[in-house]
Structure formats: C-alpha cells, structure tokens
Amino acid sequence: EAARAGEQGKGFAVVAAEVRTLAQRSAQAAKEIKVLIEDTVQKIGQGSGSAERAGATMQEIVSSVQRVTDIMGEIAAASAEQADGIEQVNRAVSQMDEVTQQNAALVEEAAAAAGSMQDQSADLTRAVSAFRLPGGGERALAVETVSSVQAGGSQSSLRLAAY
After folding, report:
1. Is 145 in contact with 128 (CB distance < 8 Å)?
2. Would you state the pLDDT for residue 7?
3. If you ran DSSP here, which 8-state letter would residue 63 be given?
4. How far apart are the first and last CA of the chain?
5. Angle at alpha carbon of residue 24, lines to 11 and 14, rounded to 5°
6. CB-CB contact of 141 with 133 (8 Å)
7. CA 134, CA 141: separation in Å to the nearest integer?
8. What's the rounded mean pLDDT across residues 26-55?
9. What are the start-end ranges of the E strands in 12-157?
10. DSSP secondary-structure letter at 153?
C-alpha cells in the first residue's frame, strides 16, 4: 500500500515497519513471558511438593515426640515403682536387723541364764552333799536333783520329799 501511495506512503511504510518490529518484539516477549510463567508454575509445583513433604516430616516429628513423651512417662512410672520397691526392701532389712539384734540379746540372756543355772547347780550339789541319808544315797540323790534342775524338771523334788 505504501508503494502504491508513492511519496505520501513513505511515512506509512516507516510506521508499518515499526509496527512489524513491535509485533515481533511483542511476540518474542510473549514467548519469553510464557516460558517464565511455565517455569514459575513448575517451581510452584516443586515448592508445593516440598511443602507437603515438609508437612509430612513435621507430622512424623510430632508423632515421634509424642512417642518419646509416652515412653518418658512409662519410665517415670517404672522408676517410681522401683523406688517404692527399694523402700520396702529397706524397711524389711531394717526389720530383719531389729529381729536379729533381739535374737542376739535373747541368746545372750539365755547363755547368762544357763551359766547362772550351772553355778546354782554346783551350789546345790555342795549344799546337798552336806546331808547324809540312810543307806548312803545322798550322792545319787544330789546328782539326780542337779540333772533334773538342769533339765527343768521337778521330779527330784518329789523324790527328795519322799526321803
């Protein structure tokens, strides 16, 4: 059209060339924008996937923390039970110690009583030997009486009364 218009069309040709150049640049810019949009969409998709994975990982961490908390509670309960058990063992050992000490004291008392009874038996033997019975049976009676006293019996006192 500009060629047919002659001299007046030269200005139109310049404008048309500029429009063509602008159209080409616009098409190129549109292609670049399309590539940028596609790249952005892809990156958004990747970011979304990363966010989902991070969310899942966070959920796993929360679950793990809850399990650790539960286990710590169980450990605390078991420790409390063990402490109670140890306290019971300590009380039992203390009671056994008391009973052992009481038994030791009783054994000492019994030993002292046995020693005293032995001394009394000897004294009784000497005292009885001063007496004379008809038929010379005082020695046998004294031995029998001492043996009976040591055994805790009282039969010899009955026999002594019979003499």
Report:
1. yes
2. 64
3. H
4. 177
5. 5
6. yes
7. 12
8. 95
9. none
10. -
Q: In the chain, what are the domain boundaries?
A: 2-113
- Tell me the C-alpha distance between 42 and 51, whole Å: 14
> What pLDDT, on a 0 to 100 scale, did the predictor assign at position 64?
97
Tens digits of residue pLDDT in 102-159: 999 999 999 999 999 999 988 888 887 777 656 666 566 667 777 776 776 545 444 5
Threshold 0.90, pTM exceeds: no
The two structure tokens encoding residue 162? 């019979």
Task: Look up tokens 């970011």; give the residue.
Answer: 47
- Maximum distance among all Cα pairs of the chain, rounded to whole angstroms: 189
* Structure tokens that stand for 15 in this block: 């404008």
Distance (Å) of CA 14 to CA 19, 20, 23, 24: 9, 10, 14, 15
Q: DSSP class of residue 8?
A: G
**Backbone CA torsion sign across 10, 15, 21, 23:** negative
